[in-house]
Design a protein that fits this description.
By secondary structure, the chain is an all-alpha fold. It folds into 3 domains: 111 residues, no CATH class; 47 residues, no CATH class; 116 residues, no CATH class. The protein is built from 12 helices and no strands.
């Protein structure tokens, strides 16, 4: 895909312009609301969407060989570069092809003959890697939420449902607006979680009991993180409060929140949801609470072996 993107830069370089396509209105009516939509949908929703999946993959990294700081740096670079470059390619080619409301048609029309085959390859195979990554994570998450479902059954179920949505979105309705709205809503709901988690991480000093983290996965109960029937009420309430404010302040092609009048019709949902979720969580935390003790050497060794296996 990197090679195909580089070829695309040469293919469309002669037609590139910074001028907007003619007769293309702002999606949300004016500049600033549309700019905010682009910043959230194209810039922030990607990292926020992936941030809930990072634990699925960083758990395979040996804590004995790599520090938490190095993992954090690698994650930040990967999210930034991996998501920014495709977005920039899409912007570059859209301007070069004078693509307005329709992207695919003008893109093909503006492509030189020698780039049609690479463009076809990019269109058909470009999402295979991401689809596999998403499928793995969806199956893993559903298996965690529904303990009675095996990994194989959970993955097969989400694959069937996702395939159905793809065909329905292509043949039954215009999925572009629905997908844009979905990622904006996902950002509003996911940002409080992304804020609360590092606050708890700092409070705990980055020290966790790996055995207690596996309680739910082992279909058992109890442990340092069981709290009330497996729920941490303060964190859940803080997340719900942040998500509710975010949903009330979001602006999408299909839905607009009731708080938009207070923000000048500009979508500030991800900022408000993160701030509210974080503030409520900090306010609800007990003063002087003791963090769980650091895992023992034998526990860390078991974690290392589990990661390798």
């Amino acid at each position: 895909m990197t090679a195909l993107l580089l070829l695309g830069l040469f293919a469309y370089a002669g037609e590139f312009t910074t001028a907007a396509p003619p007769d293309t209105p702002y999606l949300l009516g004016s500049f600033w609301p549309t700019w905010a939509l682009a910043a959230v949908a194209a810039g922030l929703s990607g990292p926020v969407a992936f941030i809930t999946l990072l634990g699925d993959y960083t758990r395979y990294i040996s804590p004995a060989r790599h520090s938490s700081r190095s993992v954090l740096r690698a994650t930040c670079v990967g999210l930034t570069v991996g998501l920014l470059l495709p977005q920039l390619f899409g912007t570059f080619t859209a301007l070069a092809a004078r693509a307005g409301l329709d992207y695919a048609g003008p893109l093909v029309d503006a492509a030189p003959g020698w780039y049609l085959l690479p463009l076809l390859l990019a269109a058909t195979a470009g999402s295979v890697g991401n689809a596999g990554l998403m499928l793995y994570s969806m199956g893993l998450d559903l298996d965690a939420i529904v303990p009675r479902a095996s990994r194989v059954r959970a993955t097969a179920l989400v694959a069937v449902v996702a395939t159905g949505f793809v065909f329905a979105g292509h043949f039954a309705w215009d999925a572009q607006s629905a997908m844009t709205s979905f990622v904006l809503l996902l950002t509003a709901v996911g940002t409080p979680w992304a804020v609360i988690t590092p606050i708890a991480h700092v409070r705990l000093g980055g020290s966790y009991d790996p055995e207690a983290l596996q309680v739910f996965n082992r279909r058992s109960r109890g442990g340092a993180y069981w709290f009330r029937s497996g729920w941490e009420p303060r964190a859940a309430f803080a997340w719900a409060a942040g998500a509710a404010v975010g949903l009330a302040a979001v602006s999408t092609p299909l839905y607009e929140g009731v708080l938009l009048g207070l923000t000048g019709e500009v979508d500030c949902s991800f900022v408000l949801s993160g701030v509210v979720g974080g503030v409520v969580y900090v306010a609800l935390r007990p003063r002087g609470g003791q963090a769980p003790s650091a895992p023992s050497a034998s526990s860390a060794s078991r974690q290392e072996r589990a990661s390798v296996s």
